[in-house]
Design the sequence.
């Protein structure tokens, strides 16, 4: 089985070698847990080290804002890599008066399919599900999400869906995404002592892998992400 490495030091071992190619994976966490940075880093490292093509679809954040944040994390040479970003937020802003009239879910699917067929992308990122739901309210969430995830699987690309968890919520998802996707990677801030926090990562689910369950500390060294086992709290 071909696998997509995360290139997060220590985490690919947790995943049993990486993420199976063609999986649809949910990256979830509360605000501030670096969901976007971790996901973009996976796409960036795969483009840099394995020449895999990546398509990042941002439904809210601007291209310049996202690029600036990634450069701050040491991801140099973005413009020279086969990594592309679509700023849907900019399109939404220029057609604000028509936003409620459009079937954005259908538009998004047609656009993704066309780009993947034309450019043969290996990795596709959709940031975020919450923004997608605000654009395309689901009348029958379970059925509509089933068909959307099935569509993503048929692309044959590895797809990452970024999902934000509300503070205080015990649920990882807003609908039934956890049953439909192939993998779930959860990020959280963990309180250590009375005044410190640690960013942690956990692979909750990854079909067709012998992955390790449990939390690992996630850090950024200035150039890349790395994980270490948690010894104690």
Sequence:
């Amino acid at each position: 089985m071909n696998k997509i490495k995360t290139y997060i030091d220590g985490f690919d071992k947790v995943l049993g070698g990486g993420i199976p190619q063609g999986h649809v994976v949910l990256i979830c966490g509360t605000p501030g847990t670096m969901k976007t940075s971790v996901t973009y880093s996976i796409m960036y490292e795969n483009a840099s080290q394995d020449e895999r093509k990546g398509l990042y679809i941002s439904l809210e954040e601007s291209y310049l804002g996202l690029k600036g944040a990634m450069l701050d994390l040491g991801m140099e040479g973005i413009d020279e890599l086969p990594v592309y970003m679509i700023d849907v937020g900019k399109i939404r802003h220029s057609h604000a008066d028509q936003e409620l009239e459009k079937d954005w879910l259908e538009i998004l699917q047609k656009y993704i399919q066309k780009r993947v067929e034309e450019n043969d992308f290996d990795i596709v990122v959709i940031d975020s599900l919450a923004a997608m739901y605000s654009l395309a309210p689901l009348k029958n969430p379970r059925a509509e999400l089933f068909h959307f995830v099935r569509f993503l699987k048929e692309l044959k690309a590895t797809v990452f869906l970024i999902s934000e968890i509300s503070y205080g919520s015990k649920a990882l998802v807003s609908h039934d995404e956890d049953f439909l996707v192939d993998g779930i990677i959860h990020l959280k801030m963990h309180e250590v002592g009375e005044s410190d926090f640690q960013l942690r990562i956990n692979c909750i689910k990854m079909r067709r892998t012998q992955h390790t369950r449990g939390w690992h500390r996630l850090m950024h060294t200035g150039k890349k992400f790395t994980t270490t086992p948690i010894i104690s709290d």
In short: The domain at 21-191 is CATH 3.40.50.300 (Rossmann fold). The helical segments are 11-14, 35-50, 63-72, 88-94, 104-119, 129-135, 141-154, 177-180. The chain has a mean pLDDT of 91.
